[in-house]
Amino acid sequence: MTERGRAALARDATNYHLGRSSLSWDGNGLSIGIDEIAVPIPRRVRGLVRVHPTALPARLFVLDPARRHLWAPLAPQARVEVTMRDPALSWSGHGYLDTNAGLEPLEDGFRFWTWSRAIIGSGTAVLYDAERRDGSAFSLALLFGPNGTVMERDAPPLARLPGTLWRVPRPTRADAGTKPQLVRTLEDAPFYARSDVATRLWCEQARGLHEALALDRFRQAWVKLLLPFRMPRSA
What is the signed CA dihedral for 174, 137, 111, 169, rounded to 10 degrees? Predict the structure, then answer.
């Protein structure tokens, strides 16, 4: 999924440029400058996203025994301001920022995973479940406090949301005796789904974002042939 060539990349300690788009950290917030051409129907997409973290917990999580895959929730809770020029849209609300890093492609280490982040009364809940390529399972259930504290919690029981049109399963978690609700499907792709979900976690109502990533599906050649129709490609 290489969208840009090496010459399009420049970075230092506080700035990252990829083509005409950029990230910039000023010590208090992250500015995300977007300047792209949409595909498959070309049109300009330009604007600015500002991310203001409420806390920055310095916590790194290892996702596999060989330590080939790492995940860090950089800003589990944040205020986000979006100002777009093309199209002319703007809004603000709560947000989240994390990062993944690895020494191999995701599909080499994992077959399937789900991730979800939800606002609950006592903080921000993040659930992470993955099936590794060797058949073993990985699970995280975290509660982030407003001041950046991180608490590992017992994961609620597994529950299921309806599958997507592309037949990507959407397993999630919810308190025993409750059923999560699919509010809206935001993205439905052959190997990926993003959804707006309402559920109940640790005896509190929760509303948030759910992602499902089917990496066995992504490995298939016919799926990779579709990628150039959704994102620009480097020559």
Answer: -20
